[in-house]
Amino acid sequence: MNPPRDDGVTTCLACAQPITHRRGRQRYCSAACRQAAYRRRQPSLPLLPPPPARPRRVSSVYACDECDCRYAGVQWCDDCNRPCRRIGTGGQCPECDHPITIDELLTAVPS
Predict the structure, then answer these.
(1) CB atoms within 10 A of CB 24
(2) From CA 37, how far away is CA 14, in angstroms rounded?
(3) How far apart are CA 98 and CA 72, in angstroms?
(4) pLDDT value of position 39
(5) How many angstroms separate the Cα of 64 from the Cα of each of 52, 68, 78, 94?
(6) Is 21 exposed, middle or buried (0-12, 13-18, 19+ CB in 10 A)?
(7) Termini Cα distance of the chain
(8) Residue pair 57/85 in contact by the 8 Å Cβ criterion
């Protein structure tokens, strides 16, 4: 003799909401609940550490407001003993060895 089947209301294994119109062996009320349950069963992936932070100061060009001197990677004016303002990203010019920004290099190129 077969035991009686439990055709009553069952609950979703993911959200515990009642499944009123169960089809076959349905265990979840929706595809979203089935996917959420699958993701919970999977081992979590280890998070990758963020890349090491690079200081912005190293690749910046600064200018003194008092004497108009430029410095690559230095925020303090040696002549005036005052802080400089950042004018952009750049470095030393390969030809003249003076600090120059990338924006100045791009505007100097003829189109």
Answers:
(1) 5
(2) 6
(3) 8
(4) 87
(5) 30, 5, 10, 22
(6) exposed
(7) 90
(8) no
Q: Are 81 and 66 in contact (CB under 8 A)?
A: no
28-41 confidence digits (pLDDT tens): 999 999 999 998 88
Distances (CA, A) of 20 to 11, 13, 33, 35: 8, 14, 15, 20
Of 88 and 5, more confident = 88
Count other C-beta atoms under 10 Å from residue 20's C-beta: 8
What is the 3-state secondary structure of the chain? CCCCCCCCCEECCCCCCEECCCCCCCCCCCHHHHHHHHHHHCCCCCCCCCCCCCCHHHHEEEECCCCCCEEECCCECCCCCCECEEEEEEEECCCCCCEEEHHHHHHHCCC
Domain-wise residue ranges, the chain: 10-41, 56-108
